[in-house]
Structure formats: C-alpha cells, structure tokens
Here is the input.
Amino acid sequence: MNADDLARADATAIATAVRTGATTAVAVTEAALARIVQRNPSLNCFTAITAERALATARSVDTRRAAGAEQGPLAGVPFAVKNLFDLQGVVTIAGSRIDAERPPAIADATIVARLVAAGAVPVGALNMDEYAYGFTTENSHYGPVHNPHDLSRVAGGSSGGSAAAVAAGLVPLSLGSDTNGSIRVPASLCGIFGLKPTYGRLSRAGARLFATSLDHVGPFARTVADLAAAYDTMQGPDPRDPVCAERPVEPAAGELRLGASGLRIAVLDGHFAGTGPAAAAVANVANVAKALGASRRVEIPEAARARAAAFVITAAEGGNLHLADLKTRAADFDPMTRDRFLAGALVPAAWVIEAQRFRSWYREQVLALFRDHDILLASATPCPAPLIGQEMIEIDGAMVPARPYLGVYTQPLSFVGLPIVTVPLRDPGPMPIGVQIIAAPWREADALRVAWALERDDVTTAMTIDC
Amino acid sequence: MAERSFDAEAYVDAAAALIGLPIDPAHRPGVAINLERLAQMAALVMEFPLPDEAEPAPVFRP
Here is the structure.
C-alpha cells in the first residue's frame, strides 16, 4: 500500500494488510501523521498529535507480528479521540481553557484502552465544543473545526473534530460522545458513519462527562464494517462507570451480512416529518425507506416535549457539573457556552424532576412502538452544514437560532437512549446529510445490519474528500 | 404558560444569590435570555399531565 492507498483504506483493510505483512503498522502510522500535519491546518481537527506514542505503539504491533504473536482485530489502525477522552500523558482539555490547566491523564479512558489492546494506534486528540455543549464545534479557545467538504461551513458538533478527521481521510476511525446528538449531527454534516450505542452500553470511564443522565460514547468510521469492528472491541462491563450495563459482549460484526432481512422497518412521522428547509432532508429518508421496501409510517407521541425535557436536564446537569468554576472563573468559559451553563446552574428542581419523570413515561411510549417494529428511520439533521458563524436559520418564514435547531431530530431519541447509526446519503447534493437508523434498546446489531445493507446496495456511502 | 411572563433577570439575581453564584453584570442579560429559553422548554414539560406512578428515570442501586 502506498500513502494514497493508506489514506483511502478503511480500518478493516489496514488491519488485514498489517496482519498479512502487506504493510507495517509503522508505515501506516507515519503516513497518517504526515496527512495530519499537512491537512490539519486548514481543518483544525486536532488539538494534540501524539506522534511519539503512536510510533512506539506501531513499533510494538510490528514487533509482535515479527515474533508470531496473535494480532488484534485493529492491528495498526490509526485512530484519534475527541479531546474529552483521557489519553495517557495528554491533558484532557474537553474543549476548555480551564481544563487545560489540569495535569496530563495518568491512564487511557476505558474504550481507548480497549482499542489499543486490539492493536489500534492513537494518533491524537480532536477539537470539540467546550465541555460538549454545542452542535457546531465553533470553539472560541481553539478555533472552529472546518467542514472538509466546504471549509466555510461547520463540521457539526460537539464531536466536530472527530467527524471531520474521518471525512478528510486523516484517520479511518475516531471516537466521540453524544448527549443530545453530538455523534449523529457531525456524522451527518461530514458525510460519514457514526454509532451512538444504547445508553449504558459502552463505558464512559475516563471521558469528561457533560450531562450524565444522557451521556453516551461511540465511534465514527467510513464503513459500516469498521464501525461494527470498533464497537465490538469497545463493548463490555466496566465497574469504573456506574451507568455502564453489566451485560455480556454482544458482537455485531458477525451479524452484518444478515442485512435488513426479517426486520420490520418504519419511517418516523409527526415531529420528524419536517417542513420548510427540513423537507428536503426528510425526502431523503423516504428514499432510504423505499430502498428498504418500508412503507409504514409511525409516530412517537410527544417527541417535541421529549426534546424540551432533554434540553432542561442537559442544562441543569451541565450547569451543576461546572458550578465550582462558574462561581470563581466564569470569564474563562467559552462565550459560546458560558451563559447557557450559568443559566443551567439556576434551573429549579421542579423542572428537572418533572423532566426525568416525563422521561420514564416517554420511554414506555417508545418501547411500545418497538413491539411492532425493529427499525425506525428519521433524518439525522434538518439541513446540511450551516456556515461558520451563522446565527439564525429560516424555518417556515420565521428566523430561529441555527445551532440548537441542528439537534431537533436527534434529541428526542437519545433522550431514551436508543441505539442509532447515522448513515451518509449517496449523492446528497453539494453538502452531505445523514439518516438515523434507530433500533430498540440493546439492538445495535439491527441498526448496523440495516446500515450495512444500505451500504452494500449503494444507497449510502461515506462522502470523503481530499482537502 | 405562566413561565413565559416571569421576570428572568429578577429570578437570576435571586437564585444566583441562593446558591452563591456571582453573575458578572456583563453576563447577566445573556443568562436571563437563556433562562427564558429554558422556561419555554420547561413549560412544555410542566404542562403535560403525568401519572403519579411515573418515577424519575435514574435508578440508584445501593
């Protein structure tokens, strides 16, 4: 494999090439680091590049192979992480200036350690909205992440660096977090695959939390097989995260080839039906449904209220988490997040408790839908990427704030922790946009099977670009 | 929808004092605007009738 091949290769192809000796982990890592150094200045994805550790890790992968030792499923695969995940020896800044004063992390986050144990090579940390509170990665401290498909537009957020790095071919695999849409929104706006697993499926230990009631972690990739391989590697209980479920590993990779057969699929209506600028996005969902032979439409009751409840819980938990710093050094917060955190710290208990009670009620409504359906479809975002700095967007003749609007279709679903794969549409127009493949709790494999079938049939494909 | 007509700046001052959170006068208008947005969202939740059996979602396991 030459450097160009490596830039285009997915994680599965790289690991196969490393295992068979067609290339070495060091060669793959050097090529990835060279691409990052060359292209990151225009994208602003990376906040730290761990070249020394990456090369040392790659050398150890190659040494193990030379000694005939068993190779992990991600042998030699470069990956990078949203900068809220602990990377040993790197300061976990979580997009903030305040956390940049912390000492370097003494150990990797649990899911980072699991990827490394599988042979993957950590090459750096990625830009994000401060403390994950945003959908656009317009970070005032570290600068905005630029969308690889149009550098004047946002990459989405809060895991914007994670999505842009994969879409631009800097790494085949990255990690992000999703509290209200922070994996699914940037995956949609950058044209790649993202998986937000079931709430509690993957350990969040060693990841800087935002709103613990809603925080999830998960991978980004350019193929469904890579998404499944990374997800399978990261599964398993973890006593360091009280939310992480004590469930056995349920591998999904082996089920992909079952495709969509036997799954009952419907399109989400009502709140997700979309009007105004969202009409085009929702038409995309109809095309995906048609390709899957799905004609049923169903409605989740009170989805708009669910979004509101998620909004309240997020603000209150985020505000409380950062209360000590808000009291003593509010001016050091990003102006993009500061007033929202301050307001969140003042939310009355009645609102939060009611929102959490509503969450239980709403969960029952959602679970009832899954008695008759296995997969639900909805647009991931109501529109492609807005411009960097764009404050407002017109919806049905009214101007509304653009940034929170990006989460209108993701928030009501993460609110009850459903596993969701965002798939990028093939030929969406000049800018990418994605569709959410939504499964029942703990049925990540169903969503990945449908995504795999759509990829196989050329309905969805990662929209990657050299820039 | 009583929440929409509440005096957000007065609430900010009172609630911030209660929890010992100083609000810089330069930040106060932005905080009040965000509380008004939160109040609009919360109104959607608060107006919805829930059965007494609906417990808060998080479960603590000792």
About this structure: The two ends of chain B are 39 Å apart (CA to CA).
